[in-house]
Amino acid sequence: MLNLHRTAMFIAVADTGSFTTAAEAMGLTKAVVSFNIRQLEEELGVTLLLRSTRRLTLTEAGRLFHQRSVRLLREAEQLQDDVRANHTGLTGDFRITTTPEYGTQVVVPLLAEFSQQHPDLRVRHVSSSLHADLISERFDVAIRLGTLADSRYRAALITTFNIVPVATPGWLVNHRVESLEQLAEADWIIHERLASPLRWQVKDADERPVSFEIKHAPRLYADSAQVLMAFALAGGGVALLPEWLVRNALDAGDLVSLLPEYTFAQQGIYAVYPDARHVPAKVRTFIDFMRARVN
Fold first, then answer.
1. What keywords are annotated for this sequence in UniProt (predicted)?
2. CA 49, CA 5: separation in Å to the nearest integer?
3. Per DSSP, what are the bridge partners of residue 211?
4. pLDDT exceeds 60 at position 35
5. Helix or strand or coil: residue 286?
6. Cα separation of 212 and 203, whole Å?
């Protein structure tokens, strides 16, 4: 019978590349972790790790065992959490990752309320603009914005939002933007993580689709919406930003929405989770909770 506790130790060692780091993360001694890995190898009858003075290397069997055991351990944890949830409410760890901007403004306040409703649940939030590997990094859910392309995961649509081109009143003093053609000729600030940041489909006031393409090579790029807005507020040009992010700046007059008669394609807010056969109760509960709050 496979020992899941030893399996968790092996995953920690493989992920960190260090017995010492893995032991510290699990609150154990290096000797205990090392002993259990040796016992696991004996039980399996294979060598999982090649040890040298400089580094640890997974054997071919070790790589296969790591890949399968990560999923196995996750399903075991989900089963345990679901059984407990039916009896005592949500328990265990709930690991969630979001972008810094949407996380700070929307998700983190919701997580605080969610945690109060489920006091036995340990909420762990990671803020990152990078798309995490949900399985290897053991995230329960990721909140992602825009459009999705990764078919390895399942996604639940939470809501949609508008994106709007904005610039400062000061920038508009020296730049005329009264038509879509003039907007295409403007100085743009570009989100470099987008697949096609220079081409968009927009709709006019009569809901007719219009192709829109930025004409001049942009000089300013950023990898987060917050930095794009900072560039725009500094008078760097036009940025295409989520309405929820720029609403306060628009209301204060620090930014101006350009050509509001044209609408850019709506974007989605998704809860993304591993494509498991069984969705944990904590994931289902949080998705329902978030939908009820942000719609």
1. DNA-binding, Transcription, Transcription regulation
2. 17
3. 201
4. yes
5. helix
6. 10
Which residues, listed in sequence order, are joined to residue 267 by a DSSP beta bridge? Answer: 161
For residue 106, give both structure tokens: 């929307």
256-257 and 199-203 strand pairing: unpaired
For residue 137, give both structure tokens. Answer: 């990094």
DSSP character string of 210-245 = EEEE--SPPSEEESSHHHHHHHHHTT--EEEEEHHH
Neighbours of 45 (CB within 10 A): 7
- Coil, helix or strand at residue 200: strand
* Contact partners, residue 185, CB within 8 Å, separation at least 6: 215, 216
Of residues 34, 3, 39, the one with CA closest to residue 21: 34
Q: pLDDT tens, 126-142?
A: 988 766 666 567 788 99
The 10s digit of each residue's pLDDT in 52-88 is 767 788 999 999 989 888 888 877 777 776 666 554 5
Instruction: Determine the Cα–Cα distance for residues 287 and 271; give it in Å rounded to an integer.
Output: 7
- β-pair type (238-242, 153-161): unpaired
- Tell me the C-alpha distance between 241 and 218, whole Å: 16
Torsion of CA 165, 167, 169, 173, to 10 degrees: -100
Amino acid (1-letter code) at residue 177:
V
Mean local confidence (pLDDT), 21-41: 90
Coil/strand/helix, residue 147: coil
Amino acid at 99: T
Q: CB-based contacts of 219: which residues, under 8 Å, 6+ apart? A: 187
Give, in order, the Cα–Cα distances in Å from 172 to each of 64, 181, 191, 236: 58, 15, 21, 11
Q: Which residues contact 149 (CB under 8 A, 6 or more apart)?
A: 195
Amino acid at 249: A
CA torsion 290-190-232-206 (nearest 10°) is -70
